[in-house]
């Protein structure tokens, strides 16, 4: 009989021990951990960066943690940090003012000098709000301004776009320029953007094009009104306000709307307001100037925005990027006397410890999450979510987060079409975040035992279609969790046919339109 070498015996014994240990661990593993591990083991996430932190909202106990300290690009989940810090630093009742002011005397029905239109970044200014300011001035009896109309946007600096934004995003409404004097097309308050509506014209002729608000853009309309129209495209040239309308629309078809950003909102505001003055019977004899309002100027008329606690709804529900940037520059102005991104980020970092988070563990360059240079960790978001619960403004903030499975857009927001009919519907309040190769979900959910949880989930660097179904499956698993009970059926459902391997790799397994979050396409 030949004896085996001692090394072979030792290896066999070690393998037996390890096998028994693994089996014992499997028998004692927490069911929630087992199910979450299974979900995060989806082949589409292979070689991707994956982070998930789940904590008891009251005690802070960790129920699950993977790559909690790792820094990820957050996308729009960064708005959790921006909004919470802004509520702490500016207060939930903060409002933005837009003033008409002058240093000149009023002589009869004439203002004998310059009229200043001074903004502080109000993202909710609509065309009718500028009309209302003109009406206030007209109510004082002024009919002629013997001077310039001066547009004062100096509350913020002149840098229109944040560091790390993509140049090819500039024409899109979600990547608009930030200015202290701006406008929005409607009550979604996409500041710095216009709605271009294209309606059918006479058969064979060009369609009709209208712009809201009616600012002075150079519209180049080469579209046609043609039976079976294939759709119209609206594009703004880089670096200016030349807008091309092309394609075709069928006679009798419904109007098509496209939302685009504009170049130099301040100049367009000045033109819009000059038209408002004229409509109210007020003539400005001088040209248009651009400079600061003198300190000695007196206010003739004013308009205040809604309070921040109300602005949170379109900001968070619809993931409005421009609101995040206004908040950052407003923080910079309040705490450092400079309406700039660097000053605003310094203010944010100084306030972040008040939310239990360490600013040295992150790097932000904007307030919306649009910059590809932003990095922060799941742990940081989970800590902010926990600490926010003790703040006096928490209820307004919590209610402003998107709610899973609620179809009303100002309730469900970016989660309106997700997780309907599950334990997460009407329960989960969370912020979404999506960029190419990036998706995240972070917020609150109450499990089947009535235990409130905070969670932060981040996926970076995947090359498949957006694994949003995995996010949803994890959220539903948290919502339906009951201590000690496994849910072996918990798995992500993806678009590939049953029994086939998920498609991965550049250009495969992905639908570019369907993969876009609804906030990118104005479909929520």
What's a concise summary of this model?
This protein has 524 residues and is an alpha/beta fold. The protein has helices at 6-28, 31-40, 79-90, 127-139, 265-279, 308-317, 321-336, 341-351, 378-388, 394-400, 409-412, 468-479, 512-515, 518-521; strands at 49-56, 62-66, 97-102, 106-107, 110-111, 115-119, 144-145, 149-152, 193-199, 208-212, 218-221, 224-225, 231-236, 242-249, 256-261, 283-284, 288-290, 298-304, 429-435, 438-446, 452-460. The termini are far apart.
Number of helical stretches of at least 4 residues: 14
CATH architecture of the largest domain: 3-Layer(aba) Sandwich
Query: What is the name of the CATH class of the largest domain?
Result: Alpha Beta
User: What value does the average pLDDT take?
Assistant: 91
Q: Nearest-angstrom radius of gyration?
A: 27 Å
Supply the number of structural domains.
3
- Strand ordering within the main sheet: 2-1-21-20-19
Shape: globular
The named CATH superfamily of the largest domain: DD-peptidase/beta-lactamase superfamily
**Named CATH topology of the largest domain:** Beta-lactamase
Biggest beta-sheet profile: 5 strands, antiparallel
Helical residue percent band: 25-40%
For the termini, the CA-CA separation is: 77 Å
Would you report the number of β strands? 21
Report the portion of residues in β strands: 15-25%
* Structural class by sheet pairing and helices: alpha/beta
As residue ranges, the low-confidence spans are: 1-27, 494-510
GO molecular function, one term: serine-type D-Ala-D-Ala carboxypeptidase activity
Pfam families: Peptidase_S13
Keywords: Carboxypeptidase, Hydrolase, Protease, Signal
EC number: 3.4.16.4
